[in-house]
Amino acid sequence: MIENDKRTIDQKTFDKWTKAWRMCKCAELPDCFHTESIDESNKEEYLLRRSKFYLSKDEWLELIQDRLTSIHIHMSVEHKENGTSRFVPILEPVLTFEPLNNEGKEKRYYPFKEDPPLVIEGQISEELKSQLVTNWMYLHPGFMVDQFESIKDPNEQGAAKMGKQLKPIERQRVKFYQYDSTDIEKMRAIGENFNYIIFHLGVNHNDDSFGLPSFAPVLHFFSNQEESKSRSRALNSADNLYFEFATPCPPLCN
What we know:
Helix content is 19%, strand content 25%.
């Protein structure tokens, strides 16, 4: 349920959607990232995998005015009345206020939209496509759930050799990704020199950090001017258009 301003959702909806994400069965989660589509060439139906969502420039300028300390992008699932379910990333600005001013301050939640405007189709760096997004697009549905889970071994090192009874490995589904104050300052520096914020879904197969989720989202401040720039720009370039190093929680929660 989107509120009247069409930009934010209320606390009740946020709680409902994020709980649906946490409780979604492993076998059902891949369906949330696909939608039915029609091949115009032969009119046959097929499943289209979602790889990007967007937030408008107006929405970003509205939330960046506040005293941000970080940004949380929550994972959520909306169960629709027609029986289908869809994945919805939700941006929450984490703010700082003086104690007296913080009373009664409501949190705001900005859900990303599913279909970016056509103007941005295809406008993405080759590095981003090859490193992260392509991995996501070719990922087998049976392995999707694993990308969102962190692994924690509660056993001390060498416990098996010492003959100790082993505790089961703990798996936790990530709840949100955080961009910290350093990222916020770089985002502020962009000003209004962009058209949309795109949230790309990606997988990092090269991350050897044991236990961390392989899902690797990227925030992309898209500008129409990129059409005339090199398509081979590296991530987090001098233009500060790509932000890929978000912190997953769990396991890394502040």
